Here is the input.
Amino acid sequence: MKLPGKIPTHQLSSQHAALHRDNTRTSLFGYHQLASNKRLSGFEIYSTEGMIPDYGPAKSGFYRFGILTQGSLHVQLGLEHFDISGCAVNFSIPGQIHAKSNVSPDVFGYYLLFEDSFIKDLIPQNNLGQEFPFLNYAGQQIFSCNQPEIDELIALALKIDLELQEISAGRETAIKMYLYLMLLTAKRSYERQHLTAPPANPGSTSHLVTQFYKLVGEHFLSLRQVADYAKLLHVTANHLNRIVKSVSTRTASDAISEMLAQEAKVLLRSTPLSAAEIAYQLNFSEPAAFSRFFKKSTGLTPLEYRQQENKNAFAAFGQ
Here is the structure.
């Protein structure tokens, strides 16, 4: 029998903050040391001071808006991998598996976490992905900005921090408006660079593979067969397999399995669900089938992976 319920995702809370913030570090900016009576529901902002360098794979029930001003890091969104350096912005959306690693020692920037309900007064709920294409699986979620655009984003982030530190009339409304202006600045940069324009060669190998990866990241929990994605991309399953393998040395089926393995990792890291419960949650016919799949994908059994992650977490916090 399949277990009911949705796949758990991280929500904005003190428990979530422990996954990406080092509470032994000092940072006066944003939420890192903000008094509880000054916090707002559905919104957080931080600088990279006090940020834990490695994060994920994880899923969140909110949007993430990162601004990199210097240094570099590696970001994974679903099956896509990006090495980014300042000046750049990066986004992730609710339900999207994401991770970061290889953070350089000189990295600096800011990041905002917000639920769509926080900004619904300015943008109708569930329309964020239409208004801002980078808040959509189909859009380009990481892109460079010019210096004036980065300067504008920094200035608005600092205004948000100033509002947070004081309790003044219209404080929450002002923060929502500054957030909207930050998204608008990013959108203008996106449009300036013609990132919304159709690709010059929509039939190219690289474009097809990118679109496939984006579709897998969005639909892998419900669509498990290569033929499902081939139909969406208007190609044959054999052609899709051939193209994906020519670019990555793995088949399209391997890519779907990798995405499913990432989901399993999220559940093993972030929930108390047993391997058997996860097996049914992910629609495997039986726990043994899930264990075989996970061992083939990662080289570890589900229990070994969970023990390894718990050990790493204890080591990270010096316990």
